[in-house]
Amino acid sequence: MIEVIGVSQRFDTQRGEIHALDRIDLEVHENEFVTLVGRSGCGKSTLLRIISGLIRPTVGAVRVAGEQVARPRRDVSVMFQRPALLPWRNVRKNVLLPVEMLGLDKRQYTDRAQALIELAGLAGFEEKLPHELSGGMQQRVSLVRSLIQRPKVLLMDEPFSALDALTREEMSVELQRVVAEESTTIVFVTHSIDEAVLLADRVVVLSPRPGRLERIVDVPIPRPRTLGHNAHADQVSAISAELHDLLQPAPQVAT
Amino acid sequence: MVTPVAAESAPTSARRRRTRERIRAFGLPILALAMIVALWWLATVLFNIPTYLVPGPDLVVSKMIDLNSYLAEQTFVTTKETVLGFGLAILLGIPVAMSIARFRLLEQMLYPLLLAVNAVPKVAIAPILVVWMGFGLAPKIVMVVLLCFFPIVLATVAGLRSTPSELVELSQSLDAGEIKEFVKVRFPWALPQIFVGLKTAISLAVIGAVIAEFVGSSEGLGYVIVQSGASADTALAFAAITLLAIISIVLFYAIQLVERSLLPWAEENR
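Predict the joint structure of the above. Result:
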């Protein structure tokens, strides 16, 4: 579904050139859930923006559904770290924003909007304005909005990182439930190992400065996955440990 | 069977609190005004100030009553000049601000010019406007526009520039195109700041109308003040000043009312 082919990215800044990404090759299959993890500054958000078409790569190319990405595509949807809701629109109207922006027929999406709102646990809040909702609820609205137009690809840029730890866990579990009903390919950027293991079919580890593809770790744990006590605790901790070692190399000890 | 009582009493007490706040918001300034007027009246009586210097509030009020239809006419004239000029300033200012916010080149060309124009004391232009346009409505409207234009442009540009980056990225990711992005995101986002500019401008608009009436006019409250000065009818001048203040206040709150009903989200959001 997504092919990243030899992508490198350089930015010119006032303090000189920044080499953000270095020859990234990556393939994401249809309906796969891939998480990108890495320390801050490894260019994971940049890679996501390149896939979305918001940024053109300095070198290399991205293909989505077999077509080269030159600008944002209608079948690719992005969810950001901040909810990015319009404060003057109520929940329902915020959810329908992409339908208006893409020039689709609104009547065909009102039922879907309602169904998604209910699926995300927002029933009864349709008429509320964003400032009347908690941070977690706002991000739920943002999630529903990013799904409204039935995107083939959903790109998520640390969507839960601004939430408190408990809400964050709850949202990760909810996310699986919501997207289970949709057939969507998802690339999810995070710096949380727990989140990466909980959500992903494969975890892509990036190394910082310049961002290189360090390793791809498979997560063959059956779904639905939960936090806390579960039958696959050993597997989870083994994968988490591997990711820990990759992301935080043990200090060099002289022997 | 305790819950329904609790559920009902909570909103009622909230409503009662809101009513109390509203009474305070209106009542306290009115109380202060009443006290100042009382002090003013007391001072004129106690210190025996001649009425051609400071007339008591009773004289001002009786002047208003005696000349009510004349003063109402003059109030209408000044209000008309103010509102027309203000409306024109909006019609001119917002498109200019939109182009400045959109095109970097225009900003570099126009912004210093606008700042320079704004730095010119407008009172100095008033007599020239009379030379150019005579004593009619036109120079008054131009004067009002001159005073209102800049705060409206400044606030609108600032508002249009304040769109948060995540909203810009969102509409870009939806490949919305510039017009839809402007209509659905940038402009509504700018509205609260545009209203700040409008509220600044409306007070200036009244000043502009009065200045223009001072220099060349045969009607309006500014003209009334000039005439009353010539005949030492200070009570009439005070009556005109009071009416000007009322125009200013009423127009200001009218804009605030429009703002509140148009942007109920803005107060909570900022």
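Residues 1-75+151-238 of chain A form a domain with the Rossmann fold fold (CATH 3.40.50.300).
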